[in-house]
Amino acid sequence: MTIYDFSDMKIDPRKHPWGYSYKWTPGEIGTALWLDAADADTITLDSYGRVDKWNDKSGNNYHGNQGTASKRPSLQENAVGSYSAVRFVGSDSQLLGFGDVLDIEDLPMISFVVARNNGADGTIFGKVNTNRDAGRWAIRYRDDGALKGFRFWLQGDNNTNHSVDIYGYDTQDFNIISQVIDRARHKAFLNAIELFDNAAEINNNLSINEPFEIGSYGYGFDEYLTGDICEVVILRRIPSEVEFQKIEGYLAHKWALAANLPSGHPYKVNAP
User: Fold this and answer.
1) DSSP state, 250?
2) 249 in the Ramachandran plot: left (φ > 0), alpha (ψ -120 to 50) or beta?
3) CATH topology (fold) of 27-239
């Protein structure tokens, strides 16, 4: 009888469902954009250790890059346990190159991000058009001195402003921030807790022919991010409640944020 020795086999449980401890990932439900700073295979560094390219894991090839070496963000190793984060340092760093993607003409759009802010006002990601009117959207940090929080920016039809500012939160800690934009609704969550659920008016073709950016808002708005981004997940369909909660649970347990989930969350204790 032949005896095989598998003791040296290296199994990545996130890639092999027959591994010892298989874990669910957003790749199982299909994503429009998926950036993961913990996956070293998706990040290309230059000779100075700065992020030259951050590859999209969704399969859509929405890769981010920065052609100007002096504006490249850095890779902060061991930002959360053994996982890295991409660090932005204000006007000296941003990621472009994604192209004219993720317009709100193709609603719905659901965004999740794990990030923290180390500065004043700054944009995590978003799009803005040349005329700064209908069709712009972003997730941004707000810092008005004693008041710190978030701006969920959304400009709808006829320049209708559906943006919402939320204050009173510690933005210097890592959080799971999510935004849902649909034809008639605009809502947001922080660590799986709903912040608001508002009516919206998004009916027309709102293609704005401008690039999606990470770490800034673009076209004169700037408001560069001084902070860290760990992971970005964007969907172009409304997920089921179970799928939405699985994404929250996946991010929470991966980035050591499970304690921030509400007590009734199905993945408060165990990852999906």
Assistant:
1) H
2) alpha
3) Jelly Rolls (2.60.120)
